[in-house]
Amino acid sequence: MSSSTLMREAHEAFVSGHNGSSAHDLILAVFPGIPASVLAVLIVKGRVGWFWFLLECCFLVIPLTLSFTVLADYTLELCTLLVILAGLTLSFATPTNTADYSSSSKTKKHLGCVTSLRALLSLATSVAILGVDFHSFPRRFAKTEEYGYSLMDVGAAGFVVMNGIVEGKKRASYRFIARDGVILSVLGVLRLVLVRASDYQHHVTEYGQHGNFFFTLAFIKVTCSWWVWHLKSLGSFLVALFLSFCHHLYLTIGNGGPWTLSDAGRDTLILANREWLVSMPGYVALYFHGAALGAFLFSRSVHTKLSYSLTIMTLCSGVCLASLHFYVDLPSRRLGNPTFVSLVMFFTLIVLTQFSLIEESLSKLLPRMSPVPVAFQAINHKPLLFFLLSNISTGLINKSINTLEVAYPWDVSIITVYATLLVSVIYFIFITDVR
To answer: Is the peptide bond before 373 cis (omega within 30 degrees of 0)?
Structure first.
């Protein structure tokens, strides 16, 4: 057996067979990015340039990397420290003239809280997909094998929710649906071919032998976009509930859950990709939940205080998650069951609520200041490109070095540099477009 095959099998074993953690654990892991974004806004003040970019990265990339690695057991302390620093900095902040913001025109047409949420999820996902291959990344954050609460499970699903949130704002055209579907399908095929050709590690129980996240996005784009454009908030929400209910019946009464999680062979196309097929209704439900949320966000009255509504939604989502956890089943990303859907929505809503509170507070205290760091604006400008670059960079790093043999502090340094370089590419594209 070749050394590359042995390395691949070792990596696959390293990321397989995990049971996750708890809901509050994964929320605390991402939470440092919220007060860190406030620090970036207050200190950088929207100024562009490579010095200011590196300063933003110190606030945005480093805390997130640390909370995912060596400080994973001290996320509460890290969050507390960052909240105190953000509060002290805000108390000394002074208003800044709008003319200082080279990027302000790019954010006027967007909700700052949505931009920040989308960018934070993208950045957290990029850090996690490389970090999971190093020992400093706790195994409880890795993808769960069957059931459980996992940081990486929520990250990919959150990307689907964000697509649903912004989809309703796009122009209704079959040409755009077909174009996006073809692009995503081609990316899915390329990823499949490259993984096979390079003998790259592949966690089969994630999406099956041939499925991947790009195929998931392509399917959702082609089958759901038209409905999202024609349904209002309540309609999308009801569709999501109906899908989740029918999916639950299939998983339980229809025996779809035990079949998917069984040790059955993968000698047919359906058996080989049963995780991708069975979990798809859950991802579609998440997409419609996101569409319902987006329709509410972008059609509400300008006089409505967003944080109040989002707080109520978050509480309802939390109650739903707790009820499903105790009386139905644990979340499973392999099944995409209703508990998993509730977990992803609760996670998304709680982060969105925090960013909405930040946006409202800054708009009162510092009305001329953009509530979104420039680096977040850049990531939000090209989220799919950022995700694609993350996947390519992760593959190159894993093929260049044996990440299982890299010890602290070199592993954390590699992850930090990788994330900073990714953001720098997107940042350069963004400020070039602005100028």
So the answer is: no
